[in-house]
Amino acid sequence: MIANIDLLLVVIYFIIVLIIGILASKKETKEGFLIADRKVNAVNLNATISASLAGGGILAAYIALVYLKGLAAIWIFIGASLGILIFIPFAKKIKRAGDKEGHYTMLDFLFSKFGKQNNLIAASLLFLMFLALILVELIIGGKILSIITGLPYWLSVIIGASVVLIYLLLGGFKSVVKTDVFQYLLLFLFVILSWFLLTGTKIETSQLNLFSISAVEIIGYVIMGIFIIFVSADVWQRAYSARNIRTVKRGFIFAAISYLIIGLLTTALGLVAKINFPNINPNNAMVYSFSQLLPAGFLGIGLVALFSAVMSSADTGIFVTSLFFSRDLVSKYKKLSKEELISLTKKSIFVLTLIAALIAIFIQNLVFVVYTMYNFALILAPAVIGSFYFNLRKKAIMLSLILGILSAIIIVSTGQLTAEMTVIPFLISAISLPIGQKIFKI
Questions:
Q1: What pLDDT is stored for residue 150 in this prediction?
Q2: Which of 280, 289, 335, 387 has fewest C-beta within 10 Å?
């Protein structure tokens, strides 16, 4: 159990995000629920991109990786920050097409390029990716709340999931953006506290070697970082929601800088955990650092910052995944009005949150879940990027996706999930795509 002041700070945080959800639902339009009326400015765009990518579960998994690999783990953040910058020309095209065609999801843009069958495969891969993302957020959120209150882990997961569910049902994507802006500000409390802990800890020089891992691992981390941006449907939705093309460019540049700063200071927290708790489970490194090293009051601030990171990614994951079902699957086979689309999306949000919470209760290995996410998600990257430059043949896309999926299944089933092995499905998918272009005529 923690001090009353810390618990009070967390309760206040929950109340604030629920109030934001309620306010977002006032005068809610259909476009507001689905895509925040396409009026998000550059500052808010930066905040919502950074907050969604830097989820609490993702940060906890990353800190576990730092615990195992040292400073060299930062290559993932370096890759992702580069990926955000590289993605800007694509984001501009996405924004133009979204405004013209009324797109809401990543697969709206790709449907004509991929075809119905490939779109179904892509939707399944994205579903797996975002289900994994939701799981890591609910896992770490449950662990944090359990520490705060002394409640059982399973009940803590359900409580955290319920708060996200309420404000999502109230305001949809507008709630996601508005709460992300608030949570982005709190996220910097997290990195400030990480720096505070770092200054009080003597870090061994051996832990500060950027090249302490193999070149293959470094390449694997950079590939994971860069190409995950291209298949992050939540990043695509942010591009759609921007006010204009100039906003897209500025927002993404700001986000690349913010994300790298967040990565550097999060790395510091991982190193602090490694020094102070050398024999713990790496999956618990972030929670240990905050709960054991911060004094009363500061602990509450740290936990609020962690919750903000958890919810900023959990709400995005739930909303985007629900749209995969309502928009990318059902509406492609049955014409839906906007009212029907919103209603089905809300039902999907409820069911998905319930299922994810139940799974999170039984699966608690953060690093495994994140590696699984990358393992399957990166399969899409070659076809997605190629579709911007070439008229890809549908059968070539299918060959690329299927061979990538088969290799990913083999890697997971044999227990070989490492940074190097995680990018193998991506490489197989990338190699088989041009081969399919040569083999197939249609």
A1: 79
A2: 335
Buried b (16+ CB within 10 A) or exposed e, 280-305: bebbbbbbbbbbebbeeebbbbbbbb
**Tokens 């039984």 — which residue?**
362
Q: Tell me the two tokens of residue 105.
A: 């999801």
Enumerate domains of the chain plus CATH numbers. Answer: 4-366 (1.20.1730.10)
**C-alpha to C-alpha distance for 19 and 51, rounded to whole angstroms:** 19
Which residues neighbour 151 within 8 Å (Cβ) at sequence distance 6 or greater? 145, 159
Q: Indicate whether 1 pLDDT > 60.
A: no
Give the pLDDT score at 255: 92
- Angle formed by the axes of helices 298-323 and 153-199, nearest 10°: 120
Cα(315)–Cα(395) distance, integer angstroms:
35
* C-beta separation of 134 from 321 below 8 A: yes
Burial of 381 (0-12, 13-18, 19+ CB in 10 A): buried
Mean pLDDT check: name the lowest of 237-251, 286-300, 366-380, 414-428: 286-300
Contact yes or no for 178/33 (Cβ under 8 A):
no
pLDDT confidence of 442, banded at 50, 70, 90?
A: low
Give the C-alpha separation, 15 to 142, whole Å: 18
DSSP symbols for 245-262: HHHHHHHHHHHHHHHHHH
**Are 329 and 339 within 8 A, CB to CB?**
no
Asked whether 47 and 189 are in contact (CB, 8 A), the reply is no
Greatest distance between any 2 Cα atoms in the chain: 68
pLDDT value of residue 87:
95
What does the pLDDT read at residue 28? 64
Strands (E), 362-416: none
For residues 278 and 148, give the distance between their C-alpha atoms in angstroms, rounded to a whole number: 23
